[in-house]
Amino acid sequence: MVGRDDELRRLRRLVDASEPSVAMLGGEPGIGKSRLVQELIAGLPDTAPVLDGQADPGTLSRPFEVLLDAIDSSNRSAALDPELLRGVTDASRSMIDRIQAGLEIVRLLTTPGPSIVVFEDLHWADSESVALFERIAELDGGRLLIGTYRPDEITRRHPLADLLTRLERRYTVNNVRLERLTLADTSTFLKAATGRPPTYRTALSLHNRTGGNPFFLEELLKSNGDADLDTLCDRPLPWNVAEALRRQLDDLDAGEQRIVEAAAVLGRKVPFDLLAAVTGHDENELIDALRDLVRRGLMVETGEDEFSFRHALTREALVDEMLGRQRRRLHELALETLLSTGSRDYALVAHHAKGAGRYLDMVEAARRGLHVYMGMGSPYQALQLAEMGLDELPDDVELLACGARAAWLAGLLDDAQELGRRWRAAAGTREERADALRLLVRLGWEIGSSGTMQERAAELRAEIEPLGDVPAKAYAYAAIAQSYMLTDDTERAVAWADKAIALGEQLDLPGVWLAGKVEKGSALVNFVAGVDEGVKVLNEAAQQAEQAGEWLLAARAMNNLYNLLPGGPADWAAALERMRSFAEKAGFESLAVASYFQGRARLAVQQGNLAAALAELESARRRDRGLLRTRNGSDYHGVFFTGLLLEAGDLDKADTVLRGLIEQSSDAYTMLTQTSVPGLQFHLACRQGRVEQAREHLRTVLDAVRVTGVTGRDFAHDLISAGLAAGLDVDELRPIAAAIDDPFFDDVWRWLADGQIAEAAGNLPEALRLYRKATAEPTLLLPNQRGTGHLGAARCLLAAGDLDAAREQVRAAEPLLAQWSGWRVAELNALRGRLGLGAPAAAGAGDEALTPREREVATLLAEGLTNAELARRLYISPRTAAVHVSNILSKLGLESRTQIAAWVKARAQS
Question: Residues 308-336: what's their mean pLDDT?
């Protein structure tokens, strides 16, 4: 069920509804329609009535065949009156009588509800079964009627075509369109099947091979047996899959056969003009042939004058059947055409040069393409070209350098390290070795090993010491400054950054002095006295880098700056979007995806919206999970996500995510395993009431803090809160408060933590003083912690008998925790009860404010659909979809689609 969680949840909500519902499941063959239905049925109680009928290609001539098949599948059919069954099968009776008999059978077999009636593969169903399906929708009772079909096989003459239109007019139809698996879903599928996450390359290769079709993916896995998953990328197709794909070609004439063979060799995306040149067809002939191939569903138009096979494996099956000489001839023709027209599609040129055996042309295309694709922000494409060239010239410094950098930008850290080491070994000069070391310094940090980073930085300093004032030395200064900035050694970071700025300006190297500014500003914002200057420096660097087209530096500057800018959440969100735009132009995967979504989650936390923060991280993890490419293993967001789950009180899910973090722990995960992960284990054990285990984890946390000196801004506060909730002695928790040493946040966080300790120790006047000091600085504490500070003050005032002042503190906490949940809100509600306060008016509206169609649109928006995707899913125009979205925002009092997603999630959990 990978990639089908949202669809399954939608169907389960329909089953639980009291009124009858209709759901239409559409999708291509092998996409998982039947699997989804079976998973839905498997989750029902054994007593729930189910009718599940299957149409077959030959049923068009057998009236009511789908109903009869459903009756056979029902364990209640033995109780049916035989006369009623004859009423359906007796051809001498009128069609109305037979439909009425069928409806009575459905009513009897699905009462009492809730129940499910499924007509599968309606594109093959006889017209009588289709007519009966429509009438079933009119029956009373808690019944979910599901129809599955293949949209591509519904012609205007098919009885189902009119049915879909009529159902949409008369009922609220829940259209569930099953799409192909995304790359992340494909990776998760592979991980679930094999027990380990695949590499990015393997996941991408198999995703491209199968097009994300679950059936093809599963068949490939079956054919692999127990072999290493990475070998599956090059294994031949299983015979049953290859045979099924080749059957699509049975009705092609000789001319069409030659066209599809040529298209198969030309690549995944085939330009019209190139196909015309290789096949020798004129424009009109080729248009007619391609129109017929598209109509048959064999090929699709993927862009302006560009075509692809609907299933990538069809292309593969065709190529496998061709003679080697035939393939080489087609590659040769394609290459000559591309070279004669001066094509700048260097990846395509290199592909055909390799296929034609012209390796010098391949290397030349690779060299040219490297810089083009890096400039376009396509590092993975550049890496593929570099590796293609390195197959011929394995020690080429230019190819190694570009390949290593491309792998780093794409987030393929193992590949980047291997290529970086080869680059350094192949380098013939100090300047070349220094350039290689600069990347290896950064990679030391990316893999989570500050020790490795510092070792590489020391080697870099030794390498450049004999050099004069040359560009390699200037770039090295910036890299060394970055190494100190990343380890919070502000003084040295600023000193080396100033050296980079000076030498960069002297040598007229904008990339160097801009990098120096980014490192300097990033270091300065880490301590209170330098924040204003750091913000100014980063702001200047971001603007100047944008003007110079230095997108990577612009992205890094904005990433370290966006939530320090003047203004509020709206301004910060706009700055975060700018950061993402810069990162995408640079092709920097970790900032464009992982950091971006984590930034959105952090902004939601800063606005006090826990559900929105969780929704952002859920979205991020769907894109990221299962891939061995991020610096923190397969779950980049796991620590943050677990912390928010603990906030929300979702202990089971927090436990699951935390176990995954522990399982993936390695040397590359040292800092998190030493501090954050044990802290989360302590917090979870406390909330679960496992006090002795909590004490063990607490000892681990304190030992780690003493060794690493690492504490988080809210680290002590969260641990103290959890420890007090579990009943730990106050003296056991004092060392946590004493461990706070963040120079920028020391005072306010120390006041909050010391206030908690003082309250637990019974020193209420001191606790009240500290709580009031902490909450008096609203810009430093997050809304949820500030709300907890107010509640702490309220408890102290309540104990002192000052009820009015205690109520004021509770009222101050209410707006701060209005969009929060979990233990903080539980404390708020407890204090409301003790002080005789009613619950505040709920913000926003409930389900009743939305029409059924708007509720369906809101649910789809929570899946991340665009207006165009909404329109396609619901068979409405994009303009109508936009009107629905606008109405939902207005009725719920919300401002963004992300807030709608958070609202949907909150309603589902309530």
Answer: 88
